[in-house]
UniProtKB/TrEMBL annotation:
<dbReference type="InterPro" id="IPR004384">
    <property type="entry name" value="RNA_MeTrfase_TrmJ/LasT"/>
</dbReference>
<comment type="function">
    <text>Catalyzes the formation of 2'O-methylated cytidine (Cm32) or 2'O-methylated uridine (Um32) at position 32 in tRNA.</text>
</comment>
<dbReference type="GO" id="GO:0002128">
    <property type="term" value="P:tRNA nucleoside ribose methylation"/>
</dbReference>
<dbReference type="InterPro" id="IPR001537">
    <property type="entry name" value="SpoU_MeTrfase"/>
</dbReference>
<keyword id="KW-0949">S-adenosyl-L-methionine</keyword>
<dbReference type="InterPro" id="IPR029026">
    <property type="entry name" value="tRNA_m1G_MTases_N"/>
</dbReference>
<keyword id="KW-0808">Transferase</keyword>
<dbReference type="Pfam" id="PF00588">
    <property type="entry name" value="SpoU_methylase"/>
</dbReference>
<comment type="subunit">
    <text>Homodimer.</text>
</comment>
<dbReference type="GO" id="GO:0106339">
    <property type="term" value="F:tRNA (cytidine(32)-2'-O)-methyltransferase activity"/>
</dbReference>
<dbReference type="InterPro" id="IPR029028">
    <property type="entry name" value="Alpha/beta_knot_MTases"/>
</dbReference>
<dbReference type="GO" id="GO:0160206">
    <property type="term" value="F:tRNA (cytidine(32)/uridine(32)-2'-O)-methyltransferase activity"/>
</dbReference>
<keyword id="KW-0819">tRNA processing</keyword>
<dbReference type="GO" id="GO:0005829">
    <property type="term" value="C:cytosol"/>
</dbReference>
<dbReference type="GO" id="GO:0003723">
    <property type="term" value="F:RNA binding"/>
</dbReference>
<keyword id="KW-0963">Cytoplasm</keyword>
<comment type="similarity">
    <text>Belongs to the class IV-like SAM-binding methyltransferase superfamily. RNA methyltransferase TrmH family.</text>
</comment>
Length: 248
């Protein structure tokens, strides 16, 4: 299965959402991570201009959202349901951190539908809703202030789903370290320059050069960066030579 298709098997279910802006913000959070299936159970106001505004362009998610009257309807066809819960409950379901729960969801989403279930903004999931989940997810928060916005919770779980689906590449170009022979030429150039300008004692260069090697090893220099550094060294040598001529 294609990785993006895997995410199509993940539905985000919002139960009895009271503020339409939170629905729009949740749609935005989903779209940024490649999720598209939004299911709403008895939202207080939807459709609504505030939802459109808060979606910041993710109106296609809102337009395709499924509005249901019951939890049974919203979860129909799902083989695994993970419910978001910040409260400690006297229940038997396994409670997992997001990354562990998402690993289970991803495994099932390879072939079948799964759901992330979010309760109301004020009180979260009801006991009846929590009982319908195979696992509960608790986001580790500051114990002194664990109030997490609904859309923020959707964003976090959607992000974890994207990573678990193998779509976590940020698109940055891969580092291309320079060949070792180019790095060695840089150090030879650097040592000769530091000796010329009197910064390095040519009789005892080893200790300082080892430290410089360690410094640049951490940087994993690319060829263009080596070219820049050697250009600086060349100009330094020329400047020192010209200055030395003038003083003579």
């Amino acid at each position: 299965m294609d990785r993006a298709d895997l995410l199509n098997n993940v539905r985000v279910v919002l139960s009895h959402t009271s503020h339409p802006g939170n629905i729009g913000a949740a749609a935005r959070a989903m779209k940024t991570m490649g999720l598209s299936r939004l299911v709403l159970i008895n939202p207080k106001q939807f459709p609504d201009p505030q939802a459109d505004a808060m979606s910041a362009g993710a109106t296609d998610i809102l337009e395709q959202a499924q509005v249901c009257a019951t939890l049974d309807e919203a979860l129909q066809g799902c083989v695994l349901v993970a419910g978001m819960s910040a409260r400690v409950r006297d229940i038997s379901q396994e409670v997992l951190p997001p990354r562990e729960a998402v690993a289970l969801l991803t495994e099932q989403a390879m072939t079948q539908s799964v759901a992330l279930l979010f309760g109301t903004e004020m009180s979260g999931l009801t006991n009846e809703e929590a009982a319908r989940c195979q696992v509960l997810v608790r986001i580790p928060c500051n114990p002194d202030y664990s109030s997490l916005n609904l859309a923020a919770a959707v964003q976090l779980l959607s992000y974890e789903m994207r990573l678990a689906a193998g779509l976590g590449d940020c698109g940055a170009p891969a580092l291309q370290p320079a060949p070792v022979e180019q790095v060695e030429r840089l150090f030879e150039h650097m040592e000769s320059t530091l000796v010329e300008i009197g910064f390095l004692n040519h009789k005892h260069p080893t200790k300082l050069m080892h430290k410089l090697r360690r410094l640049y090893a951490r940087a994993r220099l690319e060829q263009e960066e080596i070219n820049i550094l050697r250009g600086i060294l060349t100009v330094t040598q020329e400047y020192h030579a010209n200055k030395h001529k003038v003083t003579k």
